[in-house]
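Let us work through a complete example step by step.
Step 1: write down the sequence.
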Amino acid sequence: MYRFTVSAAALIAGLSVSPAIAQTNAGGQQPVEVESIVIRGEKVERDLQETVTSVGVVTGEQLELDGIASLGDAFDYIANVNRNNSEGGFSIRGIPFDNLLGAGSAPLAQVYVDGVTLGDQTTRFNADTIWDVAQVEVLRGAQSTVQGRNALAGAIIINTADPTYEFEGRARAQYLTTDDEDMTYILSAAYGGPIVEDRLAFRVAVERRESDGFVDNATTGEDGADYNDQWQARLKLLLEPSDRFSTLFTVNYSQARVADALSDRRLVGPNGYVDLNTVVAGNEDLRLSYVNAPDFNENTNLSFALRNTWDISDALRLTSLTTYSDAENDERLDTDGTNVDPALYPQDPFTINNPFNIPTIPSGEIVFAPEGAQLEEQTIFTQEFTLSYDTGGRFRGLAGAYYVESDEEEYNFTPGIQPGILSVVEGAARPGIEATLIAELTPLRGVPAPGNPVAGIPAGPAGDPFFDAFIAGATDLTTAAVLANYTDLGAFLAMTSEPLSIENYAFYARGEYDVTEKLTVGFGLRYDHEEQVEGLILSGDPLGLPNPATPSVPAGFIPALIPVVQGTIAAVNANFDASLLEANTSASQDFSAWLPSGFVSFDIDEDRTIIASVRRGYRAGGSDLNIPRQFVSQFDPEYTTNYELALRSFWMDRRLRVNANAFYTDWTDQQVVVSLSTLQQDEVGFNVGSSNLMGFEIDASFQIDSNWSLDASVGHVKTEFEDFDTALAETIIAAQSLTVPTNLEQTLAAFESNAFSFAPEWTGSARLAYEGDTGWYGVLGVTYEGESFVNNSNSGSATFLQNDARTLVNFTVGRRVLDDRATISFMARNLFDEIYVASGGNERVRMGAPRQIGVRLAADF
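Step 2: predict the structure and record it as tokens.
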């Protein structure tokens, strides 16, 4: 189980005592040191070895040398960070960035680019481009004291290259192809320099990328069903009117059109349509999709950042960061996810009623087709002031104030399908049928009358068994007659608007004090206040319901029971209608929290430090929208307490750097959403969960000599759902005048002792790089991610596929030419073409990228 740890320790010990490696370089040169790394994600710049936080870093030099062109590929080289179930999604220490148990109005981790807060949809579909990036930092573990909201799991900090006072430019062209000739190309350029010498400089960067994807559409015959088309442009201006004041202005525009097609595993019938109930093992390897409607996301994001820095004195620095982002995500989706026989859908034309004028809704008379749309618009404004203090003495400190205003409008047009309608109808119909039959037939027992079905059953105890048996049989017969009027695949039309407004302000402080030359203590505290208003505007209709006046009944059906069939169908239809009645409701709430942190560090010597820390993590409460019942359920904040032990160390005359963090996180008051029925979005949210996670990260960098270097990382995390308070959940549901689901206890208990979804226990990477004196260079990279579960219940059918473990090998070799001003390199991704399930499921899964080989041309000028 712990072989990774033992191997890493053995490697470190071996390198530490090896006489051959400890020698000076050829030619008598002094040993080189491992390159230092400066971290900017903790509000002040500090050396990696001085951080208390566990930070995974991919430098701009590594991105360039390895040919890493996407944020997701960078994650593969950071321990305990992995991509998860959605396009662009990620997890830190097993915690997904967006949600874990279906609840919450805010993410659990945040992405910042040049200080700009990215919205959730931009993070998913438009954050992958990392051209002209100086550094990617992943702050693992709760960052609530300094980063504030949306940092319970951690934070991603991306800093792009700043302007300089020398004219410089760079360009890149990259081409990759698979064995099936699925192509990806990337064209990038950046240029900058002085406008006014030593006072004003600029830098521009642009990138265009296009990928065919790896899945073909068997229905339309088109290749590249999971295509990706992106472009980005960025301008930065640096103004330094004096040696003590600077202004950095950044404007960034990006656009991405991403089709996230999955591999469909179901059988295609002789009529050419997908059999929804038959999964064929192995079909996932065909990489075929059957969607027959547009299915993509188009995200545009315009952002601005203004960073003013004023060195008030040699000890005091005041920084103001103002940011604004305006994002729009236009989604088109095949709501049945495949190619369903249209004969299963309602065929009658209908006119859409859109009383609230929700955008994206078609007008006029239409025929049902599974072609949905979602439009999401989000603006985020932030203002932050930080004051840092450092005289070089015993005390260092930081204080800040933060404000954010986020407004989000989400519009949905969903012509959807609802499997399992017959079980819903039976559950609603059977009790009413039985009650109606008892009420209407009890007075008729023993009454001789033409057509009376209970004339032969006398009233009184002697006839009760016979009457009960008759009622049971008549209930079965009538229920079957009602069910014959419905299909198991129902259709509906829903139009919703879901506005969300968030206002947050916070004050924080952090300080460090050197008690002795070796012992340092630190503290931090943040006060966070958040106000939310979330609404639900709904209009819609169930489609294809039977006419209760003319029901279909089997031949020989008892005529006296036909009115019961008619009344039951009318009542069931009314229930379906009620779930999509026009509604306009909202809920507002506010939350406050104190978020402390502290640490103690001890310098063993000038190269080795041990640290113990504790932090409180936090995510504000929120709301959950129940569309069928047309109400907004609310829940309170959730908290984590995070304990860590850390080592920061150099070895072998600082040629080897080894950093490690061991952690334990206790997560309480978890926000949970459970379903109240099989109807879509018939759910309620509350705080009834608790969990824990524990593990470690080890990051090592070894500068073997002036030409060779080795980087390695190992991450381990064990996640576990501990307990769910069923009694509290029942009380909350009952307090909202809702019926407690009969399987609630079973639903919540199914999570207990389980691992989080998309939380592999082991991740790791190794990277061997060579940069020769004659212009040759190369990188051999190996990444590992262990298996993980698709869902939090850790369950699935016999044909269900979980997420596979995978070991991927990447390789780059190239040469610098033209006085090192240009490079040409050949590269391979997933060199040995490992086939694996990246995001599992039953009917549809996402397969990992196959082998890609290609060439890259780059130039500096």
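Step 3: interpret the result. Residues 8 and 714 are 8 Å apart (CA to CA).
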